């Protein structure tokens, strides 16, 4: 179905169908666009196709900052506020620290940019923040807390638990960084359906609004995304492709990333830091003092530089000004856009480099492609000008620069989650860091190092591949490394880190060969199956020895098939679910894709069936033999969290969550008590409340409230949650009657007016209903005399009860027990209303009776009677049905209608 939503005053059609499955209940799923500076969260839930989750300030994005101060943990804007006064306690720009060793260039650059953090080397060799109380936090633990905070916002806004998500990551993330992001999500209690490259998420958001434009003719779009810390450009191809799903071929739209360029250190943060340095030099030139020695002053300058940079995107000049920057001295300086562009003059050429690398990696495809801009820092005028020069066309701002990735990722989340059906859109990403397999073998008595590319530059994924080792007969090992990185600039190579990924040691090779040796057996080698999943993470699925045996005897075939059948299904049950084509690479040269093992089994079975047919000579059959080979994979770069390390980090985060929960409970109880006491103290002096209690009760209430207030302002603020709740219950117990009686006296006049209105309407209805009895009109005998008399009796009884009760209540003081309650009036209204509605419904369904025709089945009419009947028209039944019906409807419409509000009171 077509769905629309409104954004920035414009209504956009969503060309997708988010339909709940009829077979299962759909649970809400979220996307989290975790950037260096901001976090945005999208959600899809039953009845809510796509939307951005608002934070507690009702904003659509939240600063990616977490702070700790006085045993209180804060997030977002609150954490930023803490960071201005206590910079060391507020942690930000954590994305570039994920999955990196302590001595990584980006970690060292982080330490230089934010020198007030105490960062040490952890046992794993990763950076670790040392907090005031000697508590330590890894980047993964801090990111996990920010992800959990986003998850909590989504759960609060939609009122249901959430466990599944799609996370955006920079497309240049390597294997260690991708694993680290998934570890952080696991610590946050999130199951990651997919890690999606941010530019791919943007391309999805762009494509779903243009599905009707996608056809068999490919067209290209270049997405340029400059964020806070980095810049990416991706050339994407859109076209329709044919896929075979559920047994039939279907044509679906597809987007495929065909070219990518990036610069990991080009972004808004670099501009802010340069502008901050400009402000520092201006301060020092005026003899302001050593501002660099003050973390608080440096943080103030950083915040002001960020603010001025944003303002200069729309204005040509602006003042930077800070009160009490250092030693109670104020700072003020005029900054122009030209000043900022001069400070960053070398950055604009780097914008062009990113564009050129994206086009170059696509092999020059996409000439004349439309350029779409995303990312907050892309709003800088000099960036847009450099982009226009590099691309040769005017950039378009046809998507929401801040939210495109979030909405694209949440669409992907809906397509991956259980219980949702979305309009098909195939997504094919591209490998940025090529991967090769390296091993050695004996050649002419010498050991030779062999390299085979597993995934080349811009290879699409998800995909699985197989590499075959057909010269090894004993145990051996091979390495998986990054390779062919010539297309990546030298400065970016340093940021990748170690090029060695894993070492795989194979054992039991000779045993596997001997076990499957014999006549008519052809060795097909050792096959290692790899899978690049849709998160861009490389997995070694399994390693096996494969051989083919030629047999001519049916019994041998049966025996062999039964022997290997369970092994085949066990090894390839999960692989068969992947839609990608396997590509097998041997030691010598690339080969054709290996056939699916299920197909091989089917083929063999078919041949066997054919062999049972009468033939002069049995045809030979090929049986595939497979034997698993033990593979011990060791990660050579950054080690993932061990189970014990994960448990330790999870325990640390759970402890913080429990502290927050108890703190929030205590603060809520304190606020409830304080607010209620103040409210009572104010109202007890108001006449309308004071007249509802006696003078003695007023004194007791005032005394109790005074005691609680004194207790609160003395030492009560340090009390436990239970004490606040106990005090609140005590005050409520003394004031319940006052508030109850006040409510009764306030609401009673409206209730009395309502029942009087019902009585009047009921009398009018009764008066009209008497005309619809057999005695009044035989043709309209809708009601019986008993029904009329019962309603009349009910009306009289209700009126009598009301008059008596009102008189008795008016004779009482307001501080005496209530005689005539609103609830009793509501009950009387309900009873009377029920009786009237019964008769009304009877009137609506009543229809006049049709006159019966005269029939004589025992006598046969004479000829004269027949002639007379022919000459005299048959007398038609009296046509009273329609006039009677009209009359009833007309009179019914004149009946007084009961007020729904009164009848439901």
Verbal overview:
The chain is of the alpha+beta class. It is 42% helix and 24% strand. The strands form nine sheets. Strands 4, 5, 6, 7, 14 and 15 form a six-stranded mixed sheet that branches. Strands 21-16-17-18-23-26 form a six-stranded mixed sheet. Strands 25-24-28-29-34 form a five-stranded antiparallel sheet, with no helix packed on it. Helix 6 crosses helix 7, helix 14 packs antiparallel against helix 15 and helix 20 packs antiparallel against helix 21. The longest helix is centred in the C-terminal third of the chain and has 49 residues. The protein is extended.
Report the end-to-end length measured between terminal Cα atoms.
40 Å
Derived from helix and strand composition plus strand pairing, the structural class reads alpha+beta
Average the pLDDT over all residues and give the rounded result. 84
- Count of DSSP H/I helices: 24
Percent of residues in β-strands: 15-25%
Q: Total number of β-strand segments? A: 34
Major sheet details: 6 strands, mixed
Overall, the morphology is: extended
User: How much is the radius of gyration in Å?
Assistant: 40 Å
Q: Which range best describes the helical content: under 10%, 10-25%, 25-40%, 40-55%, 55-70% or over 70%?
A: 40-55%
Unreliable stretches: 1-24, 560-613, 862-905
Please write out the topology.
Layout lengths: L2 E5 L2 E5 L4 E2 L8 E6 L3 E8 L2 E5 L9 E2 L2 E4 L2 E4 H10 L4 E2 L13 H9 L5 E3 L5 E4 L5 E2 L1 H20 L5 E6 L5 H13 L3 E7 H11 L10 E8 L4 E15 L2 E16 L4 H18 L9 H18 L4 E10 L2 E8 H7 L3 H15 L8 E5 L6 H11 L12 H13 L3 E2 L4 E5 L4 E9 L2 E10 L4 E2 L1 E7 L6 E7 L7 H7 L3 E8 L1 H7 L5 E12 L5 E14 L2 H19 L10 E4 L10 H15 L9 E8 L1 E6 L7 H41 L3 H4 L4 H20 L6 H49 L15 H26 L11 H24 L17 H9 L9 H13 L6 H4 L2
Parallel strand pairs: 4-14, 14-15, 16-21, 18-23, 27-32
Antiparallel strand pairs: 1-2, 3-22, 4-5, 5-6, 5-7, 8-9, 8-10, 11-12, 12-13, 16-17, 17-18, 19-20, 23-26, 24-25, 24-28, 27-30, 28-29, 29-34, 30-31, 31-33
Helix pairs in contact: 3-4, 5-11, 6-7, 9-10, 14-15, 16-18, 16-19, 18-19, 19-20, 19-21, 20-21
């Amino acid at each position: 179905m077509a769905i629309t939503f409104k954004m920035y005053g414009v209504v956009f059609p969503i060309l997708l169908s988010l339909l709940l499955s009829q077979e299962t209940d759909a649970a809400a799923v979220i996307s989290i666009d975790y950037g260096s500076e901001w976090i945005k969260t999208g959600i899809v839930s039953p009845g809510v196709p796509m939307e951005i989750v608002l934070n507690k300030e009702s904003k659509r994005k939240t600063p990616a900052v977490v702070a700790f101060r006085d045993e209180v943990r804060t997030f977002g804007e609150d954490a930023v506020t803490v960071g201005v006064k206590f910079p060391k306690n507020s942690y930000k720009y954590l994305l570039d620290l994920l999955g990196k060793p302590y001595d990584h260039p980006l970690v060292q650059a982080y330490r230089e940019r934010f020198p007030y953090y105490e960062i040490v080397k952890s046992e794993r060799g990763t950076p670790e923040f040392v907090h005031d109380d000697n508590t330590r936090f890894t980047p993964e633990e801090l990111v996990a807390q920010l992800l959990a905070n986003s998850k909590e916002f989504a759960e609060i806004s939609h009122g249901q638990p959430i466990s599944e998500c799609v996370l955006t990551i920079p497309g240049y993330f390597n294997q260690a960084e991708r694993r680290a992001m998934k570890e952080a999500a696991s610590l946050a209690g999130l199951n990651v359906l997919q890690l999606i490259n941010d530019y791919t998420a943007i391309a999805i958001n762009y494509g779903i609004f243009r599905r009707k434009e996608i056809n068999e003719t490919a067209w290209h779009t270049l997405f340029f995304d400059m964020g806070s810390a980095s810049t990416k450009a991706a050339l994407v191809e859109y076209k329709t492709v044919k896929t075979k799903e559920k047994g039939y071929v279907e044509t679906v739209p597809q987007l495929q990333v065909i070219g990518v360029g990036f610069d990991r250190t080009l972004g808004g943060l670099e501009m802010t830091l340069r502008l901050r340095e400009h402000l520092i030099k201006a301060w020092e030139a005026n003899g302001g003092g050593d501002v660099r020695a003050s973390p608080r002053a440096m943080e103030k300058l950083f915040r002001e530089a960020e603010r001025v940079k944003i303002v200069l995107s729309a204005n040509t000049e602006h003042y930077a000004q800070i009160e009490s920057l250092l030693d109670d001295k104020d700072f003020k300086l005029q900054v122009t856009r030209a000043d900022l562009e001069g400070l960053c003059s070398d950055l604009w050429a780097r914008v062009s480099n990113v564009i050129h690398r994206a086009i170059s990696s696509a092999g020059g495809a996409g000439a004349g492609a439309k350029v779409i801009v995303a990312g907050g820092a892309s709003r800088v005028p000099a960036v847009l000008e450099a982009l226009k020069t590099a691309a040769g066309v005017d950039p378009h701002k046809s998507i929401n620069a801040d939210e495109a990735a979030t909405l694209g990722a949440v669409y992907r989340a809906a397509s991956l989650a259980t219980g949702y059906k979305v309009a098909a859109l195939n997504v094919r990403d591209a490998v940025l860091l090529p991967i090769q397999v390296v091993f050695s073998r004996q050649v002419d008595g010498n050991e030779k190092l062999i390299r085979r590319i597993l995934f080349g530059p811009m290879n699409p994924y998800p995909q699985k591949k197989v590499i075959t080792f057909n010269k090894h007969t004993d145990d051996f090992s091979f390495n998986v490394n990054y390779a062919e990185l010539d297309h990546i600039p030298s400065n970016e190579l340093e940021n990748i880190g170690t090029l060695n990924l894993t070492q795989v040691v194979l054992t039991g090779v000779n045993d596997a060969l001997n076990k499957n040796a014999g006549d008519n057996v052809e060795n097909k080698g050792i096959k290692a199956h790899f899978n690049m999943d849709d998160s861009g993470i490389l997995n070694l699925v399994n390693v096996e020895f494969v051989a083919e045996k030629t047999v001519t005897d049916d019994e041998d075939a049966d025996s062999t098939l039964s022997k290997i059948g369970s092994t085949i299904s066990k090894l390839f049950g999960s692989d068969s679910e992947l839609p990608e084509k396997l590509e097998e690479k041997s030691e010598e040269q690339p080969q054709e894709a290996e056939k699916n093992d299920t197909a091989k089994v089917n083929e063999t079975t078919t041949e066997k069936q054919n062999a049972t047919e009468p033939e002069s000579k049995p045809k030979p059959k090929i049986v595939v033999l497979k034997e698993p080979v033990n593979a011990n994979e060791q990660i050579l770069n950054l080690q993932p969290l061990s189970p014990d390390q994960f448990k330790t980090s999870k325990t640390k985060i759970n402890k913080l969550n429990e502290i927050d929960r108890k703190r929030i409970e205590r603060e809520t109880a304190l606020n409830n008590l304080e607010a209620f006491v103040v409210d009572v103290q104010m109202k007890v002096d108001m006449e309308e409340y004071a007249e509802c209690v006696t003078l003695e009760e007023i004194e007791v209430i005032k005394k109790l409230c005074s005691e609680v207030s004194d207790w609160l302002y003395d030492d009560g603020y340090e009390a436990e949650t239970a004490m606040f709740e106990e005090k609140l219950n005590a005050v409520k117990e003394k004031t319940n009657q006052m508030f109850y009686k006040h409510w009764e006296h306030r609401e009673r006049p409206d209730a009395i007016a309502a029942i009087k209105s019902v009585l009047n309407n009921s009398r009018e209805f009764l008066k009209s209903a008497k005309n619809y009895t057999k005695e009044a009109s035989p043709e309209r005998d809708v009601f019986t005399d008993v029904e009329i008399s019962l309603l009349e009796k009910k009306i009289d009884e209700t009126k009598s009860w009301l008059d008596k009760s009102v008189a008795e209540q008016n004779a009482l003081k307001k501080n005496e027990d209530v005689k005539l309650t609103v609830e009793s009036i509501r009950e009387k209204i309900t009873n009377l209303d029920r009786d009237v509605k019964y008769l009304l419904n009877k009137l609506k369904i009543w229809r006049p009776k049709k006159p019966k025709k005269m029939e004589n089945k025992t006598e046969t009419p004479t000829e004269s009677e027949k002639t007379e009947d022919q000459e005299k028209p048959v007398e038609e039944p009296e046509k009273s049905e329609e006039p009677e019906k009209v009359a009833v409807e007309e009179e019914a419409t004149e009946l007084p209608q009961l007020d729904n509000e009164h009848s439901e009171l």
